[in-house]
Amino acid sequence: MAAVYMRRLGKELREIETEAPPAGLRLLKADDFDTWIFQIEVLGDSLYRGERFALKFRFDNTYPFSAPAVQFVVDSQMRAPVHPHVYTNGHICASILGEDWSPTLSVISVCITIQSMLASCKKKELPEGNDTYVRTAPDNPKKTHFVYDDDTV
Amino acid sequence: MSSDYDYSDEEYDDDEEMLDAEDGEPSTASDEEMDIETDDIKVISKGKKKLYEVEYDPLTQAEVEDLMRGDVENISAIFGVDATAAALLLRHMDWNKDRLIDKYMDNSAAVAAAAGVSPASKASSPGPERPRRSTRSASKTHRKVDPAPQPFVCPICFDDTQVETSELSCGHAFCTGCWNAYVTGKIREEGEHRISCMGEGCGVLAPDNFVLKVLDGDTETAGRYQELLVRNFVASSRNLKFCPYPSCTHAVSCHVASRSSLATVVPTVSCGADPKHKFCFGCPIEGDHRPVLCSVAKMWLQKCRDDSETANWIKTNTKECSKCQSTIEKNGGCNHMTCKKCKWEFCWVCMGPWQEHGTAWYSCNRYDDKTGVSARDAQSASRASLERYLHYYNRWANHEQSAKLSVELYVKTEKKMEEMQLSTALTWIEVQFMKKAVDEVEKCRTTLKWTYAMAYYLEKSNQKELFEDNQRDLEKAVEDLSELLESPIEAETIPTLRQKVTDKTVYVQKRNEIMLEDTAQGYEEGRWKWNTPVEGYD
Ligand SMILES: [Zn+2]
Ligand SMILES: [Zn+2]
Ligand SMILES: [Zn+2]
Ligand SMILES: [Zn+2]
């Protein structure tokens, strides 16, 4: 498993570095195979015009058979987007990061999905129960059992 | 195979020894009866079933697997699909065979697709019934030997040296190494038996033979997979339940625990692995809560949780001697306390002098409403209701605590008896009467414990008085036996002690029998009236 994990991330990284990533995405950090950070913005007409976010990926050697841990960076400079599926601690409720994950998906395909999740947002609002979730959430969003109520993500 | 499984020849009943005791002839209790090593446990015939017992069958994991296989073979034969497809169909319908047959006869293609047997797109294609082949060959393996124009590159690992690929009925091919890593992770990390195709958005599920094939002889993971399948089967079956005891793999099949029957029956069952593995088939309580109904037991436990802070002081294991105020630690199961310092004898439960409990045994089990009345006059009604609750809770908690302590006591006693065995002519079997007695005390304290939960919710009536009479008789018998077990053991007095303990044990069994039988009969006759609304009871 460990061999696949290194080879896959190595290949994905080479592709990102050689072929420029899709519009609106920029690799900020990929010094190792533990944590990668992307800058993400939604181009074109959307509620998030002009906003920039940072998306953090955490991997372990079960990747790509198990989904990476993906969340928005929330720190002194960055905020998570206000979105009905994004908690203020940066955790994202999206089925492809959980039960709908497929090993054929990649880091870039996750970024694109998150981009389109933001692009299609109709109303900026926090998820229901945000405060309770943020207070009790585990550090790793993969440990949360989200209930997916929306087929669009 | 019908859904009515009969394993009556396997039936095991640990109350069997009670039958021997029923005649009330304690002196006839012989070594054989008291010998816990006896392994020719007789099959209790249906006719002898007691009112407070339910019919059930203890099952080993292998027997549960047989039931599961039976359902699979049944569906496989009816639908003409192979067993692995039948298993996926059954799991999809939560093992509800009737519903599956209904739906499948209606639209087999749609059901097969929803169950992950065949790809969704094919299923939605127009046309009548799908050919049988689609469900029969749910998996294929190709060994790519001929130099194909384009070498296969696995879209997951991008390792082009991998030549062996596998695919499910959807045709999404991946290298077998990736399949192995994926399936292993699903089973071991996620504890998941539903293993979907690795293709994005593909809902086809891996059938059992495919899973086993890609595991490639990893028997540990294959064993875990089988366990997950059995867990899913039992969880889906209303008539099956796993034994809740840690690391026990046995289960029980019981057909009486329907919601309506729980208003009159307490379905206590035992898994067959160990007579101590008793649990309730009707609710999540991991133990025998007879004689009180599931819904009443649940109410009581909730009340105890809600009121735990106020009641906490009672659970403490130390008290002060009511005479000299020196601290006394309860270290045995018996309620007859003697202060080491001043030799004052008193009852642990009510703290009153033991003298009064002696012959005209005691009203310690009955809550005296008069104190309630005066308390109501003097103070608020809430104070009275707390006092009333504490009365029952105190006794409830005490029996729980004492049951634990008597087991500890037994360990100590057993050691002593072993030493004695070396120094006297007594055989191992001859010193086993203590074990038998301790088991009985523990069992009866469990009954007693729950009778206090029941009494708390019983409406004041003549029936309740009779209930409390039985409770008192059982309690007295148990305390007597308990005290006997704590008396000092000397080699010379062993034969007398043995006779006394044996006689008492038989008597205690009889009292417990009466308690349980009468309550069960009361449920049947609708004799018990509650002082609060009880779920499923009117
Ligand atoms: Zn591969
Ligand atoms: Zn597929
Ligand atoms: Zn068990
Ligand atoms: Zn119950």
Short synopsis of the structure:
Chain A: This is UBC-like protein. Chain A is α+β, with helices and mostly antiparallel strands and 153 residues long.
Strand content of chain A: 5-15%
- Please report the number of helical segments of chain A: 3
Do you know the CATH topology of chain A?
Ubiquitin Conjugating Enzyme
> What is the average of the pLDDT values of chain A?
90
How much is the radius of gyration of chain A in Å? 15 Å
Helicity level of chain A, as a percent range?
Answer: 10-25%
Helix/strand-derived category of chain B reads mainly alpha
Q: How far apart lie the N and C ends of chain B?
A: 38 Å
Distance between the termini of chain A: 28 Å
Name the ligand types: zinc ion
Main sheet properties of chain A: 4 strands, antiparallel
User: How many domains would you count in the coordinates of chain A?
Assistant: 1
Q: What structural class results from the helix and strand content of chain A?
A: alpha+beta
Q: So what's the overall shape of chain B? A: elongated
Major sheet summary line of chain B: 3 strands, antiparallel
Outline type of chain A:
globular
Describe it for me?
The complex is a heterodimer of chains A (153) and B (538). Chain A has 153 residues and is an alpha+beta fold. Chain A has one domain (2-138): Ubiquitin Conjugating Enzyme. Helix content of chain A is 24%, strand content 14%. Chain A has a four-stranded antiparallel sheet. In chain A, a hairpin with a 5-residue loop joins strand 1 and strand 2 (35-40). Chain A is globular and about 40 Å long. In chain A, 34% of the residues are buried. Chain B is built from 18 helices and twelve strands. Helix content of chain B is 48%, strand content 8%. In chain B, the strands form five sheets. Chain B has a three-stranded antiparallel sheet. Chain B has a domain at 61-118. Bound molecules: zinc ion (4 copies). The site of one zinc ion has 9 residues of chain B, from strand 4 and helix 9.
